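Hey,
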Amino acid sequence: MKPTSGPEEARRPASDIRVFASNCSMHGLGHVFGPGSLSLRRGMWAAAVVLSVATFLYQVAERVRYYREFHHQTALDERESHRLIFPAVTLCNINPLRRSRLTPNDLHWAGPALLGLDPAEHAAFLRALGRPPAPPGFMPSPTFDTAQLYARAGHSLDDMLLDCRFRGQPCGPENFTTIFTRMGKCYTFNSGADGAELLTTTRGGMGNGLDIMLDVQQEEYLPVWRDNEETPFEVGIRVQIHSQEEPPIIDQLGLGVSPGYQTFVSCQQQQLSFLPPPWGDCSSASLNPNYEPEPSDPLGSPSPSPSPPYTLMGCRLACETRYVARKCGCRMVYMPGDAPVCSPQQYKNCAHPAIDAMLRKDSCACPNPCASTRYAKELSMVRIPSRAAARFLARKLNRSEAYIAAGSTGVSHRARPLPGFLKGVGEPTAASCQQWAPGGGQPTFEAILVLRENVLALDIFFEALNYETVEQKKAYEMSELLGDIGGQMGLFIGASLLTILEILDYLCEVFRDKVLGYFWNRQHSQRHSSTNLLQEGLGSHRTQVPHLSLGPSTLLCSEDLPPLPVPSPRLSPPPTAPATLSHSSRPAVCVLGASP
């Protein structure tokens, strides 16, 4: 094939592949579709172009497949801060109900369900509590409120809290918020409830956090009457350190702190960040405990409620609440929501079996939150008090001689009030020590024993003002995918994004010239055929000679007749007679003849 001349190339349409190949920025096309005949060189170029395009498409498919697998990676980092928000600290006495607060009416309603007592055992249980039996003619109340029982008979922080300091400054029960958990009545420090300002710390180490001293009131513990799942065998408190957004699940996640020890808890804040689907499985939609799903709906499906913030423990708690509310028509004391609190009989017959069945079936599908805060903890402890400190603590804690004697005799005792305790205590005097050690001698073994059986100290602080971040990141971003595709495109076919635009422009030209041109030519041909048929019809119509009735005469018109002389006025048609006019270039000839 001879090379195409300039004018011929200029007359080619833009949809011609040779025009496109000569102008395209993609490498190799000009050698494949260039001018000239078929040759070995052109075939080798064609094979090279096809192989390069195939390799490029294979690499693109691999990159797209890897991107659609949505891999992620976890990055661990440690960052410094000048100020950290102090965590919420929840405290619960292991004993849920105080023996001195129980009444015969409480035993009538809550004894079988909460304490495992039979009605015939109420009198013996009251004697074990050191309480008088029910008076003759005792009539229980017509109704009973389980929430009021735990609020009234649970341990009071005013009695348990012996000392409280935060960053060296005094604090008290007013800095704690009452909350109900599965362990009963509990208290949370720095909860941020009701818009309270969150406490912060600017230094790490002991003395820069929360220091408290508690009396566990072991004399108020209920006697172990029967062995069941709710029977506590230990003494002390449970402590959970958590963020303000997360509800305490202290029966599962709480630390045990024993009396007779000072426990040091060193914390380090960890901020976790997870990816949502499809890279991860985190969720930010909170679960509304008042939302009642259909029986066919999964219990773990989140509701559109925007608050409170989604947490893993909050989701589980809300899921348990909805399950119990649907099965029993009520909720347990520690559960959120607006459903009525279950009665003790509902606790025994429905709520507890429903919770156990739900945990066995693992009905709650709660993904990880997309953002959460947790605290890594390290514990250490020492025994308290020492013999050297027992006399000072005796005066500081302001306990009576009867309280000391109860340590060895087991007699019930009550704590005396602590006036002015939070203002600090001076050096003990001989008079103050006399009530602890009769005769002014050294503190007795019974005094130290009572302190070790009831008093504990807890020191919670940050190890340092730094925190760890655990963050999930996308292993392969969209920008990396585009970069890999661009690199493969430039390596194998020498193209770029503008080359793709050139190809799209060429395809538009092909579509316009080939497809739209085909329909335009077809429509033009049909229109030309219709015009020819119309002209032929008009021509045949003009060749016919019409016979017009003129009374006694007939006018004959024809284009093919030779011209005739002008007729005389005598033979002229009347003015009203119609005449046929021809638009042809040849004049029509009309002949007027007489009718027979």
